[in-house]
Design brief:
The complex is a heterodimer of chains A (362) and B (80). In chain A, 33% of the residues lie in helices and 23% in strands. With 362 residues, chain A is of the alpha/beta class. Classes of the chains: A alpha/beta (362), B mainly alpha (80).
């Protein structure tokens, strides 16, 4: 089963049985492919005595710890086919993951992402406000996770502005002009959770106190990158929504969960506040004691699988995040597949996430 | 200026190449046409022809030739 067969399936249309069958077939193929093309990966599977004939479900496939991409240069293509290298976000001094992409994997990431996000925003492109600074996408050969996120979402923007300058200061005049120009249209906004809070929300509050207000009630805000700093400032998910709504009237706010090691497969938050797995990927929660699969409602370590990675062996990874599967196929929003929530990082795990690593400076 | 000249010009100005180099050019052939350059190309094409492209077409536009084919579709109506 190729990626091209999967991309034409509606992203939240498969129930658990159909999805398990599809994922098992595709991920077994990817496992075999990476064994043939990545020596280090094959060595690891040999060491585990992995036997693919014993696999009944994609849940039986081995998973690599995400950290491994910091220590090893894992790729299943030759160096001359690498078109882009992406790096994870890290705080100063931290090692970062390096993810090598070829044309196919890079383009499939974008295709999957378009399918996923369109299910929430509609397929038409909108004027877009990027709540970040333009310099983030400057270094083109080495993409930070932050740049990759911005670039990935940019395809939905018909006309774009960066709301912050390179000193992370809100461009009040630019924002005003943009909003006047596209008045009455649906506006897409994208940014990372902490940057939105620190440089956008707080500035809007300050401006409001001085009598300057912005109406963003036609906006759709998509944000991600981690909540760690906001939780420490006692800003909950609901509080974040309420306060942003208070200051600029925005009603549609969607969080997403994703990581640079599986770019493209993001997990969007639905209208009911649940993160959803699309058909391109899945989450499995595991018990720290023996890595067995958790029951629904039980907190565990998050494993992620993705049908996209062909250029590097990252189709099954154990993250350092903790979360809970809330249900499957029966979210009131109507989307099939698992829905879940993320509790945060495992204790003693490194800080990462575009929002969280940036926030360590504050 | 004909549509073909206008179209070629977008490539020339976006990627700082000659009209000859634009012919037959494919995505990722040159450093300038990477994923960032691609979004710049799309904006410039949209501006030049006053159109708004679908996300699927933005992804599919992976060569100079393919772009002509896409812009010729009825929803954009650019004749070459």
């Amino acid at each position: 089963m190729s990626f091209d067969d999967i991309i034409n399936i509606s992203p939240y249309s498969l129930d658990s049985k159909e999805k398990e069958k599809m994922l098992t077939e595709r991920l077994l193929e990817l496992t075999a492919f990476h064994r043939r093309n990545c020596k280090e990966y094959n060595n690891m599977l040999e060491a585990l005595n992995f036997d693919e004939t014993e696999v009944n479900s994609y849940k039986d496939l081995p998973f690599l710890p995400v950290r491994l991409f910091k220590e090893l240069e894992l790729k299943s293509i030759s160096q001359e086919n690498v078109v882009k290298t992406m790096t994870s976000s890290g705080t100063t001094g931290q090692a970062v993951s390096k993810i090598y992409l070829d044309k196919t994997t890079s383009s499939n990431q974008q295709k999957a992402m378009v399918k996923i996000v369109s299910d929430f925003t509609g397929s038409s492109r909108m004027p877009m406000i990027i709540i970040d600074c333009p310099s983030v996408v400057k270094n083109r050969a080495m993409f930070s996770a932050r740049g990759a996120g911005i670039l990935g979402f940019s395809i939905f923007g018909a006309k774009k502005i960066y709301a912050l300058d390179d000193n992370m200061k809100l461009d009040v005049d630019g924002l005003r002009e943009f909003l006047d120009k596209y008045k009455g249209q649906k506006i897409l906004m994208f940014g990372f959770t902490f940057m939105i809070w620190q440089h956008f929300y707080k500035e809007l509050v300050r401006l409001r106190d001085g009598g300057i207000t912005f109406d963003l009630s036609d906006g759709i805000l998509i944000h991600g990158g981690g909540w760690k700093k906001l939780i420490s400032e006692a800003v909950s998910h609901d509080e974040f929504h309420k306060r942003l709504n208070d200051v600029c009237g925005i009603e549609h706010i969607y969080d997403y969960y994703g990581m640079v090691e599986q770019t493209g497969c993001i997990y969007m938050e639905c209208e009911c506040g649940h993160l959803h797995a699309s058909i391109f990927s899945d989450v499995i929660t595991r018990r720290p004691i023996d890595f067995s699969e958790c029951d629904m409602g039980e907190t565990g370590i998050i494993q992620v699988v993705s049908v996209i990675p062909e250029s590097y062996p990252g189709h099954s990874l154990l993250t350092e995040d903790e979360g809970v599967i809330l249900g499957e196929d029966d979210c009131p929003c109507g989307r099939k597949g698992k829905y879940f929530k993320i509790n945060g990082r495992l204790k003693n795990a490194e800080i990462r996430g575009c929002s969280d690593t940036y926030a360590t400076k504050f | 200026m004909t549509n073909l000249e206008k179209y070629t010009n977008v490539f020339v100005e976006t990627f700082e190449i000659t009209a000859e180099e634009a012919q037959g050019l494919k995505y990722q052939d040159i450093d300038a046409w990477d994923s960032v350059g691609h979004m710049g190309l799309i904006s410039a094409l949209e501006e030049a022809f006053d159109i708004m492209m679908d996300t699927d077409d933005i992804i599919d536009l992976n060569s100079f030739e393919k772009g002509k084919e896409i812009l010729s579709k009825s929803e954009y109506g650019v004749e070459f």
